[in-house]
Amino acid sequence: MARRSGEQSGPVRDEKPSDRPRLGLCCLFVDEPDIQFRTATARVLGKLSNDARRTRLLDLAHENFTALLAAIRACGRLGIRAFRVMSGLLPLSTHLDFLYNLGDLRPETLDLVAEAANLAREQSIRLSFHPDQFVLLGSPREEVTAAALRDLEQHAELAEALGADAITIHGGGSYGDKPAALERVVRTLDRLSARARTRLTIENDDKVFHVCDLLPLCRSSGLPLTYDVHHHRCLPDGLSVAEATRLALATWNREPLFHVSSPKEGWSSNQPWRHADYVRRPDFPDEWLGLRLTVDVEAKAKERAVLQLERELVQ
Question: Given Cys at both, which of 119, 130, 252, 291 links 256, Cβ 3.0 to 4.6 Å?
Fold first, then answer.
């Protein structure tokens, strides 16, 4: 995609790194056409022989880790200090018909994994994951919970290999009874491995679980709260942004991870939860300035939005 007139690219010089949080890019780029992540469908792969299916999946994994390495290099070149890794690096790996993991990959692919982890560490680029919304720990259906656990364990394996310290999930549905749903989440946490459990965070959402719903769970379970200020504004709970920020920060034992975005059609629209191309400066909380904090920028313009917000925060 061509760069728009007047938009800048290239590194953002951090003259006072302690004066503002690090901003994170979510998964994809708009100005890096060579960075492409690949996927597959169970319907198509199901038509292949076992050998052809395995070859196809290992090929896709290699392409995806090649893209991840390129993505980390691009973040370093642009001065972007955090990157949310695409969840589908291993397509269909938790599908019961196609189960596989990192140990099944080719040696040359595992070399890419190690190279990506080393590069992110050398350039101080924080990596994180945010699994799809179908990863539900509070479902009353055991098959849904079991699928979520498989997915989170796969994410944890990838996170450990890449040096990522955060895997963020939503609370999920209320199923007509919020307290009961959250109690199921708490019980399900005990079924996770240590490497998954210690990386897991939970995010307030814009439809069901607001900050006040999740804080008791976070305090009792030690689960950090990934505070999404846009969601909080869509689903208010009586807390101010300053109060929610303070309470969320207290749940973390490492650098906190928050989210920011702007409504596509403004706060007066009837769908304020839809993300805009860019984050408007007034939507970034002044309470976050000066904090040691990672803020994922959830915006359709991807790295353009991150770089624009970086410039506006130092003006």
Answer: 252
- Please report, for the domain that includes residue 158, its CATH number: 3.20.20.150
**Which tens digit of pLDDT belongs to each residue from 187-218?**
999 999 999 999 999 999 999 999 999 999 99
DSSP 103: G
What's the number of domains the chain is made of? 1
Q: Of 74, 13, 9, 82, nearest to 295 (Cα)?
A: 82
The range of the structural domain enclosing residue 222 comes to 17-313
- Long-range CB contacts (< 8 A, 24+ apart) of 181-185? 181/138, 182/138, 182/209, 182/213, 182/214, 182/217, 184/137, 184/138, 184/139, 184/140, 184/145, 185/137, 185/138, 185/217
Collapse the DSSP code of 168 into the 3-class scheme (helix H, G, I; strand E, B; otherwise coil) and give the result.
Answer: strand
The answer to whether residue 155 sits within a structural domain is yes
Within-domain flag for 1: no
Percent of the chain whose predicted confidence (pLDDT) is above 70: 94
